[in-house]
Write a structure and sequence with these properties.
Elements lengths: L1 E6 L1 H4 L8 H16 L3 E6 L2 H8 L9 H24 L5 E6 L2 H4 L1 H16 L3 E6 L13 H11 L4 E6 L26 H7 L11 H13 L4 E5 L5 H9 L4 H8 L3 E3 L5 H9 L3 E9 L1 H8 L10 E5 L7 E6 L2 E7 L4 H7 L7 H5 L13 E3 L2
Parallel strand pairs: 1-2, 1-5, 2-4, 3-4, 5-6, 8-10
Antiparallel strand pairs: 6-7, 8-9, 10-11, 11-12
Helix pairs in contact: 2-4, 2-10, 3-4, 7-9
């Protein structure tokens, strides 16, 4: 399975605005155990701004963007060194990924980023994602890392998103005001009544609060990915959630056995993929494939490789969604990894010849199976 784990500022930092190394050591130990079982993990980490405060304090700190950017520039290195040191003890490499909203909205940036993530995960590394606070302008900012984690989960086709925070989940009342407030174990739909429960619940050390976590849940479940909100202070919490995710009767179990709030996905992954790709389908451009490639795509669930391409029709760019046809009949469509002119050059060739022919190589697949919809 593939997990995206978001770790909030309130967990990562002490009241003195220093990184909580004891917490990080514990949670990284749990992540190492999860990976040892064959799972992929991507971390979305807050904490750079708070870590920056531990090294430098302005005479009169302001809350505007340049001040936060300066603190993030100082703190990001501290944050990554801490991740590196703790993961190195587990024999695991980490990779820094600083993203902005543009990386999710621009088709080529999105595809490049997704392909890098896939390669890192294939190499058993743990990508550590944060917003690129230093260069991000206001209109491209996420505002918090909850939505960043949701979009990252969608990008890497995660099976689950886990948001670790300083409360056990969503309550009927703010547990900081009422210690006897009742935890809601399952939220099947994020509607207005649910959103009302979250307003006013905000951490003093982070930008986000329960409102932004519900926005993340609404987004990520709409693309077929279930989500958890759970306290990172629970001992062994990640091991418990991963074990829970392996159960077949998750929804029933969540209502009785989990000290967390579980958001089941509202659609299946294929329906979500079709919904996302179909409106972007490039008109008057398609790829004609042979019968062997058709069988590989339709019966074996494979990616489309250049070897199976017979001809290229129309003009398209890397990142476009193009139709795939066999005997002039459309069998599906997907997001292409190469421009039309490049596909024409490498058609009928093996993937290991791409770099020799083009002088570069993005991916061995023309269309990866995760970005391909087959019409049966």
């Amino acid at each position: 399975m593939r997990f995206v784990i978001k770790i909030g500022t309130s967990l990562l930092t002490t009241p003195e605005h220093k990184l909580d190394e004891a917490f990080l050591k514990r949670v990284i130990g749990e992540i190492a155990d999860i990976k040892q079982k064959g799972n992929d993990v991507v971390i979305v980490s807050s904490g750079a701004v708070a870590a920056g405060r531990s090294e430098m304090s302005f005479e009169k700190e302001k809350k505007n963007i340049p001040y936060r950017q300066a603190l993030a520039a100082i703190g990001q290195g501290i944050l990554m060194k801490t991740y590196h040191d703790f993961f190195a003890r587990q024999g695991i490499a980490v990779a820094q990924a600083l993203l902005t909203n543009y990386d999710f909205t621009n088709r080529e940036n999105f595809l490049n980023t997704k392909n890098v993530f896939e390669l890192l995960l294939k190499q058993n590394a743990v990508p550590v994602v944060n917003e690129n606070d230093v260069t991000t302008v206001a209109e491209l900012k996420f505002g918090d890392n909850d939505m960043l984690s949701a979009k990252t989960a969608a990008m890497v086709s995660a099976d689950f998103l886990i948001i670790l925070t300083d409360v056990d989940g969503l309550f009927l009342e703010d547990p900081k005001n009422n210690p006897h407030a009742k935890l809601i174990p399952v939220v099947e739909k994020v509607d207005e009544s649910v959103k009302k429960l979250a307003r006013g619940a905000r951490s003093t050390s982070s930008l986000g609060g329960m409102v932004t976590k519900l926005e993340a849940a609404e987004y990520v479940t709409s693309v077929g990915i279930p989500m958890f909100i759970v306290s990172g202070r629970q001992e062994g919490v990640l091991r418990k959630i991963v074990a829970f995710c392996e159960k077949k009767d998750m929804l029933r179990q969540a209502k009785h056995d989990m000290k967390a709030t579980f958001f089941p996905s509202s659609v299946n992954r294929l329906a979500s993929q079709k919904k996302w790709l179909k409106p972007k389908l490039h008109k008057n451009a398609w790829i004609e494939i042979d019968a062997g490639a058709q069988k590989a795509l339709m019966e074996m669930g494979k990616s489309l490789l250049p070897k199976g391409v017979m001809s290229v029709h129309g003009d398209f760019r890397r990142g476009d969604v193009v139709s795939v046809k066999c005997n002039k009949k459309e069998i599906g469509y997907g997001q292409i990894n190469y421009d039309a002119v490049d596909v024409d050059k490498i058609k009928k060739h093996h993937s290991d010849e791409i770099e020799q022919i083009l002088g570069f190589s993005f991916e061995e697949e023309l269309i990866h199976r995760d970005r391909l919809v087959i019409q049966h």
